[in-house]
Amino acid sequence: MISDQLTADLLVSAGITYHNMRPYYQHYGVNWQQSQIKEKIVDLENWDILYNASVVGAIRLAFEDNACYIRDLQVNETFQNNGIGAAAIAECERLAINAGVNTLKLRVFKISPAYNLYKRNGFETYTNTINDKQADNFFYMSKEIS
Questions:
Q1: For the purposes of burial, counting CB atoms within 10 Å of the CB of 98, is it exposed (0-12), middle (13-18) or buried (19 or more)?
Q2: CATH of the domain spanning 2-144
Q3: pTM of the entire predicted model
C-alpha cells in the first residue's frame, strides 16, 4: 500500500535524495553532501512516501507564483517501477489543489529517466526564461491540474 506522511526525519529524507542523486551530482560535477541537502530542504513542505508503512521516498514542494513546484520527488531505487512515482505525482496534484493552485512545475536532469515518468503523467516541457546558469542540464516541465 502506498501512502504518505509529513517527513519524520529530514536527515533520513536527505539521505534518500543523496543516494538517488549521487550519480547525477557526479556527472555534473556537483559536490553535495547529505547534510547540505538537509539544509536546503528545511524550508520546503516535506513528505515521506510510504510503501507498506516503510519510508521509501520523499516529496518536497514549494508554493510560489501561484504554482506548486515539485522541488524533489525521490523513490528508493529498490522500489522504483512499482507505480510509487506515479502515486507520488497524484499526491502532489492533490496537495496543490488543496493549496488552491492548479499548476505543477518541476525541473529534471536531462539524463534522468524520471523525465519519462513525468511525460507519462502529463507534464510538458517549457522554456525557462529565468537566467539559470545550469539550464542546459535540465528540462523544465509543467502540468495544469484541476
A1: exposed
A2: 3.40.630.30
A3: 0.92
